[in-house]
Design a protein that fits this description.
65% helix, single chain, signal, 92 residues, 0% strand, Recoverin, domain 1, EF-hand domain-containing protein, mainly alpha, EF-hand-dom_pair, binds calcium ion, EF_Hand_1_Ca_BS, 5 helices
């Protein structure tokens, strides 16, 4: 069940891909790119995950695991392993 939810969350871009992959991923980056470099770094990804699963209200090991799993799912998209997620990487 958790794996399905994670796939749903990280697959949001893929759903948008029906009308345009780059647009969906680009929006994800634009909304969460706080320093404006056009990529998501570790802090920005963490902030994005914590907005969906707020640690202040969703406490306990289950939610800790959920946050870790979603974060890991995003970083699995970091193809060039530079520690940043570009719109192109997110669109894959
Ligand atoms: Ca950034
Ligand atoms: Ca990257």
């Amino acid at each position: 069940m958790a794996a399905g939810l994670i796939a749903l969350l990280t697959g949001a871009c893929a759903l948008n891909a029906q009308t345009g992959i780059a647009v969906g991923a680009g929006v994800t980056v634009a909304v969460n790119d706080r320093d404006g470099d056009g990529m998501l770094d570790a802090g920005e990804v963490q902030a994005m995950v914590e907005r969906v699963f707020p640690p202040a209200t969703l406490t306990g090991g289950f939610w800790d695991g959920m946050r870790a799993s979603v974060t890991a799912a995003y970083w699995s998209k970091d193809r060039n392993r530079d520690g940043r997620l570009s719109p192109v990487e997110l669109a894959r």
